[in-house]
């Protein structure tokens, strides 16, 4: 194993060597375009070199956790992890520490890179960090890396490793939110595709490298090949889309040429690595060669983050395009909302994947000759379709610019979609269609689902009292405090907020409407009580928006120099400078009405669903009692 680890380390050094060579060949390119002074060759090498270390460490962390979770798995009802899985957790822990250290060192390195080679101290340090954003991203990534390393050392069960994987993915994504993809034309598409790209690439490279170092049986290699095929496909597809978005800039001929050449060179290395991987399956090429090529791709990608893509080249763009990533030419009339589609890739991907998995379950039931209620299927697919409409139609496109449209989309995601999904009974379908692993075989999707459903954190979050606090507190915290005004300019945060509202709605309505997965749950009268108790929050939000005499999108801002006692007011909606901009207070009043109606109408439908189920259950119990009585009389 030590020999294999040394070979993997040598492959990583190839990535660092590529960084040094690329930086020396390029020279101080990109600094004049960004209005920055050359920071010197040492800083120019150090910044992408540290990022390469972070990316390679992130891949090893994610790969180690995936090997422990889904590759080298034990037989059912035995130990939580195999010996290979435990060694993989150790690799993930060590890699997380290395990535955290490199991310922490990237904070002063990126500060020096943006200030001509020196690190500002005192009050200028905070001002520079806030102005650039990238150092803050690295600081957060370092904190998440430390948390990942500490948590990986305390993992005792499958769900614990899954939680650590979530932390590791978060550490991977934080630098993306402060990188090139978060700015410029098409930033909404570029940010999502880049996020998919870096996560899939980390899983692809990480699982390949960790299993190559640790070794594994034929089944583990087969699972890595399947996982790598999916991750590789996502990596290539998302990378192509992200590159296309970045190339669609407003600059003239030659804009972003340096960035384009680096991306094309990295793509060429990736193609060669794919060919080497294919030949290695036949035993013709050693695995260190493949890892070295992939490490070179990582190094070139790190150097490309210091170049200026065409999408950020100087050019004339409208204010909405600069702030949102796309233009909004017409006011949001019903016809415009119905026809102005723009894909929100995170929720669109989620809806497509969930619909595909449900369809696969239905197909397996049909192959077995088993039936399934049509109403459940209709409800599930309608929920997936509604999620797409709420986030990728005009509701999603105009939501960041118009409060009433934003409220409408969020209320549908938070209440209507979770209700339809609860009526679809996906857990029942999964348990009927997922095949259990054989007694001597490794765990599979059926066992992983049961591990997830039995997780203490999930059971706690699904408790009606806890879920009620989340479903009541989330909209109140967002719309009745300055949180909305402070987070609205952060475009990368919008998909996360949507996913949070969706998750909270699922945790609340799922157990109340469909019942918990492991038992009958609360009696119907208790379910109705919790549902009715959640309804006043939407009325409170709506009435507050109606009664407030100032737009909730405004927030006071104190300039960095103190402003001589003067406090300015910042409003993201005003900054958009839309030619058809609505009256903010009038639109806020409409948002209050929509929050009330769209928030409570699905809950009212949930109450009706519980009442109907209660009625059917009572009728079935009466029928059973009459049947028992008839049997008793007949037996006499």
TrEMBL record:
- Transmembrane ranges, per UniProt, are 53-73, 94-115, 135-153, 160-182, 194-215, 227-247, 259-278, 285-304, 345-366, 378-395, 407-429, 465-486, 492-513, 525-547, 593-616
- Recorded superkingdom: Bacteria
Q: Which organism is it from?
A: Actinomycetospora aeridis
- Keywords associated with the record: Cell membrane, Membrane, Transmembrane, Transmembrane helix
Membrane association type: Multi-pass membrane protein
Main localization is membrane
Q: What is this protein called?
A: Cytochrome c oxidase assembly protein
State its location(s): Cell membrane
Q: Does the keyword Glycoprotein apply?
A: no
Entry's InterPro entries?
Answer: Caa3_assmbl_CtaG-rel
């Amino acid at each position: 194993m030590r020999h294999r680890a040394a070979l993997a380390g040598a492959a990583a050094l190839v990535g660092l060597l590529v960084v040094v060579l690329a930086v020396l060949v390029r020279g101080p390119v990109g600094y004049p375009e960004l209005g920055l002074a050359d920071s010197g060759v040492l800083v120019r090498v150090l910044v992408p070199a540290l990022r390469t270390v972070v990316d390679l460490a992130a891949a090893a962390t994610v790969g180690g956790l995936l090997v422990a979770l889904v590759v080298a798995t034990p037989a059912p009802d035995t130990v939580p992890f195999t010996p290979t899985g435990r060694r993989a957790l150790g690799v993930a822990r060590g890699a997380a520490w290395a990535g955290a250290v490199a991310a922490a060192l990237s904070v002063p390195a990126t500060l020096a890179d943006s200030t001509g080679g020196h690190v500002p101290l005192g009050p200028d340090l905070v001002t520079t960090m806030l102005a650039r954003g990238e150092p803050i991203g690295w600081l957060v990534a370092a904190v998440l890396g430390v948390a990942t390393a500490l948590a990986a050392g305390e993992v005792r069960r499958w769900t614990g490793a899954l939680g650590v994987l979530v932390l590791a993915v978060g550490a991977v994504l934080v630098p993306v939110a402060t990188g090139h993809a978060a700015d410029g034309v098409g930033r909404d598409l570029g940010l999502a595709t880049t996020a998919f790209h870096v996560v899939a690439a980390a899983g692809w490279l990480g699982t390949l490298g960790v299993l190559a170092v640790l070794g594994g049986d034929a089944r583990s290699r087969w699972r890595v090949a399947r996982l790598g095929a999916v991750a590789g496909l996502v990596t290539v597809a998302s990378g192509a889309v992200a590159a296309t978005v970045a190339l669609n800039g407003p600059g003239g001929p030659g804009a972003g040429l340096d960035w384009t050449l680096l991306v094309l060179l990295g793509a060429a290395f990736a193609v060669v690595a794919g060919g080497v991987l294919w030949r290695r399956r036949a035993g013709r090429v050693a695995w260190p060669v493949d890892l070295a090529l992939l490490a070179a791709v990582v190094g070139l990608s790190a150097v490309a983050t210091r170049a200026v893509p065409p999408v950020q080249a100087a050019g004339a763009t409208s204010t909405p395009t600069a702030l949102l990533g796309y233009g909004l030419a017409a006011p949001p009339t019903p016809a415009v909302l119905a026809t102005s589609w723009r894909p929100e890739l995170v929720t669109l991907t989620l809806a497509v994947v969930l619909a595909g998995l449900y369809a696969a379950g239905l197909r397996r039931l049909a192959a077995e000759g088993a039936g399934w209620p049509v109403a459940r299927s209709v409800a599930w697919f309608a929920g997936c379709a509604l999620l797409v409409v709420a986030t990728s139609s005009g509701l999603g496109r105009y939501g960041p610019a118009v409060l009433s449209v934003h409220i409408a989309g969020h209320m549908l995601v938070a209440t209507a979609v979770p209700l339809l999904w609860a009526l679809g009974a996906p857990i029942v379908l999964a348990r009927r269609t997922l095949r259990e692993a054989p007694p001597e075989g490794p765990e599979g999707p059926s066992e992983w689902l049961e591990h997830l459903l039995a997780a203490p954190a999930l059971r706690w979050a699904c408790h009606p009292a806890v879920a009620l606090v989340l479903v009541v507190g989330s909209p109140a915290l967002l719309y009745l405090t300055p949180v909305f005004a402070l987070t609205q300019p952060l475009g990368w945060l919008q998909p996360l907020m949507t996913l949070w509202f969706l998750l909270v709605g699922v945790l609340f309505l799922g157990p109340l409407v469909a019942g918990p997965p492991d038992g009958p749950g609360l009696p119907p009268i208790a379910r109705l009580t919790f549902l009715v108790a959640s309804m006043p929050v939407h009325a409170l939000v709506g009435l507050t928006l109606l009664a407030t005499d100032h737009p909730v999108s405004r927030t006071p801002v104190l300039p960095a120099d103190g402003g001589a006692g003067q406090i300015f007011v910042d409003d993201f909606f005003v900054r958009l400078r839309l030619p058809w901009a609505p009256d903010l207070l009038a639109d806020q009043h409409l948002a209050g009405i929509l929050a009330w109606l769209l928030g409570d109408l699905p809950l009212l439908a949930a109450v009706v669903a519980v009442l109907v189920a209660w009625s059917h259950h009572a009728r079935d119990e009466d029928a059973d009692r009459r049947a028992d009585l008839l049997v008793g009389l007949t037996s006499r």
